[in-house]
């Protein structure tokens, strides 16, 4: 029997994006039902050309996708990241991360559209998921007995635990009065797809400039063999509007200048988009019958490509805690279960957030002296296998206390 408006679900997930929908699917695999409420129209989100962004999925996140049954359909769209090359303004002293023969890849690149399609198709056929799209929540209710969301059309959806998965501007988090530490980097990420003359050989490039990192992420070749990569170029807030207004020809010239020839001549650029960059982290990720996941709880700089992967770790931990509770007959909103989730994820996500913030500041320091110090540090890491392995394990998401769903 499929879940309906009138049923009280285990979870009320507010936000049906990549993290929220993954949670619903992972919970369903453990027998937990969900109402998923999202403002967006899924047809628009999956339309060709809507979103040129691509996302790096870590090894651990890929295990999660395998365990919830969507990896097989996604495999054909994956572009492996076989190595990561890090340079300071293309000067000598490059740092290379190349995993050992038994370690697999450092991650996989996917177009966001393909991730959404895979999740949405799986959710549509899952009877334990009641998906309400194009819906506005006008009231959020939480009490010691349960939770509910009142929609603009008058419907009321009831559950036992409310999940805020709405992203950085989460109204559920703000309505709960949860304290948040945040600052603006006064930077924007300019994102576009590129085609280029040389193959990328599955290498992701992170070229650091004082204004911010310039990342080239490998994507699958087009059907005709045209080589493609995804560009994430961080520029200062005051330069952002100017970069967006450049003609394609002028934009290509600026991109080529910063690439240092690593992918040969840039042949074309896709639609550009621009996103403000900031840091935020909540003081707590739980409240009465409420749990925060993904960007509702923590927003980090894309410098290490860990934003979505951090949210997927939240998903794995929360589902494991709730499934363990269900086996003991505990209500999903039980304070002890939420405390366990808080203790598990609070510190890990905070440490990752601090590390990415530190990297942003270290590589953003201007001047020749700062550049020289960075390159000395990078050369030291290059010669220290133990340190390199530590960073690679972090990139692959396989370090720390991993939830079972994120293991092979």
Describe this structure in words.
This protein is of the alpha+beta class and 408 residues long. Helices cover 36% and strands 29% of the residues. It contains twelve helices and 20 strands. The protein has helices at residues 18-29, 42-45, 59-67, 71-74, 112-124, 171-175, 237-245, 248-259, 307-327, 335-364, 368-382, 385-396, and strands at residues 8-14, 34-37, 54-57, 79-80, 83-88, 95-97, 108-111, 129-132, 137-142, 147-151, 156-164, 180-196, 203-209, 212-219, 227-236, 266-269, 273-282, 286-287, 290-292, 298-299. The strands form three sheets. Strands 5, 6, 12, 13, 14, 15, 16, 17 and 20 form a nine-stranded mixed sheet that branches. A hairpin with a 2-residue loop joins strand 13 and strand 14 (212-219). Helix 1 (18-29) runs parallel beside helix 9 (307-327). It is globular. The mean pLDDT is 89.
Helix and strand topology:
Layout: E1 8-14, H1 18-29, E2 34-37, H2 42-45, E3 54-57, H3 59-67, H4 71-74, E4 79-80, E5 83-88, E6 95-97, E7 108-111, H5 112-124, E8 129-132, E9 137-142, E10 147-151, E11 156-164, H6 171-175, E12 180-196, E13 203-209, E14 212-219, E15 227-236, H7 237-245, H8 248-259, E16 266-269, E17 273-282, E18 286-287, E19 290-292, E20 298-299, H9 307-327, H10 335-364, H11 368-382, H12 385-396
Parallel strand pairs: 1-2, 1-11, 2-8, 5-13, 11-19
Antiparallel strand pairs: 3-7, 4-7, 5-6, 9-10, 10-11, 12-15, 12-16, 12-17, 13-14, 14-15, 17-20, 18-19
Helix pairs in contact: 1-5, 1-9, 9-10
């Amino acid at each position: 029997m499929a879940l309906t408006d009138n049923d009280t679900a285990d979870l009320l997930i507010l936000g049906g994006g990549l993290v929220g929908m993954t949670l619903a699917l992972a919970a369903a695999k453990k027998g937990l039902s969900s109402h998923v409420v999202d403002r967006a129209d899924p047809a628009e989100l999956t339309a060709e050309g809507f979103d040129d962004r691509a996302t790096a999925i870590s090894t651990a996140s890929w295990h999660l996708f395998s365990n919830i049954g969507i990896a097989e359909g996604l495999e054909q769209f994956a572009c492996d990241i076989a190595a990561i090359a890090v340079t300071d303004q293309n000067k000598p002293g490059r740092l290379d991360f190349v995993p050992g023969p038994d370690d697999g890849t450092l991650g996989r690149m996917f177009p966001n559209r393909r991730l959404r399609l895979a999740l949405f198709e799986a959710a549509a056929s899952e009877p334990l998921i009641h998906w309400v799209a194009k819906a506005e929540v006008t009231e959020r209710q939480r009490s010691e007995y349960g939770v509910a969301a009142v929609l603009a059309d008058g419907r009321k959806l009831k559950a036992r635990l409310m999940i805020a998965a709405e992203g950085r501007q989460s109204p559920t988090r703000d309505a709960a009065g949860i304290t948040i530490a945040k600052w603006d980097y006064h930077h924007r990420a300019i994102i576009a797809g590129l085609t280029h003359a040389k193959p990328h050989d599955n290498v992701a490039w992170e070229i650091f400039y004082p204004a911010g990192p310039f990342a080239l992420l490998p994507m699958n070749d087009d059907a005709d063999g045209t080589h493609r990569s995804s560009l994430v170029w961080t520029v200062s807030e005051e330069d952002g509007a100017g970069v967006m207004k450049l003609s394609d020809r002028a934009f290509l010239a600026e991109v080529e200048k910063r690439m240092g020839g690593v992918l040969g001549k840039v042949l074309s650029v896709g639609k550009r988009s621009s996103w403000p960059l900031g840091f935020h982290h909540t003081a707590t990720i739980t409240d009465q019958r409420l749990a925060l996941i993904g960007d509702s709880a923590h927003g980090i700089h894309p410098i290490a490509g860990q934003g979505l992967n951090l949210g997927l770790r939240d998903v794995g931990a929360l589902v494991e805690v709730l499934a363990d509770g269900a086996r003991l007959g505990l209500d999903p909103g039980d304070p002890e279960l939420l405390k366990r989730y808080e203790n598990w994820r609070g510190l890990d996500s905070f440490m990752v957030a601090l590390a990415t913030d530190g990297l942003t500041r270290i590589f953003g320091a201007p001047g020749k002296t700062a550049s020289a110090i960075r390159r000395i540090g990078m050369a030291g890491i290059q010669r220290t296998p133990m340190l390199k392995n530590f960073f690679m394990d972090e990139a692959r998401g396989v370090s720390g206390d991993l939830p079972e769903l994120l293991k092979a």
